[in-house]
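CHAIN AND CONFORMATION:

***
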Amino acid sequence: MNPLSPEQWDEETRALLGDRSLNIFATLAHHPKLMKRWLVFGNHVLVKNSLTDRDRELLILRTGWNCQAPYEWGQHVAIAREVGFSDEEITRISKGAGEAGWSDKEAALLRAADQLHGQQMVNDQTYAALAQHYNEQQLLDIVFTVGQYHLVSMALNTFRVQRDDGVTDITVPEAR
């Protein structure tokens, strides 16, 4: 599915997006009512959740990697760099929780992302590790962050959404 150009957007889409022309939004412009409702939830997860930016991006990048979503990975590599991740850490995210260098808290987040991807739940051991560092709202935001970016990755991969101009990264998941 090709992204719609801004000239093809209806008034509702123009009102929602303004001058945002990322390919994800231009693709969702095919269904303005869906996009309107999804943007509310997506905005919570990306901007208003109770996690730190670092924790959120760790979850998003691991989910993008697990889903083999090149668009998602590339966009969030750029965001991760903005919030202080080094290229070495970003590369290490692709290798998972077992890599040396992660704190106990970070390793628990990576395991949670992997378990939510593979088993659609966090096991008791990982949940207990997370509960040592996070309150109830944050635990909910962990699960919903992974779920949101799993959904987004599925859509991006299914519709073959291409990366936006200028989005590069150090490690690219293989496109399926």
Q: What stands out?
A: The chain has nine helices and no strands. The chain has two domains: 6-46, 51-158. Residues 12 and 33 are 8 Å apart (CA to CA).
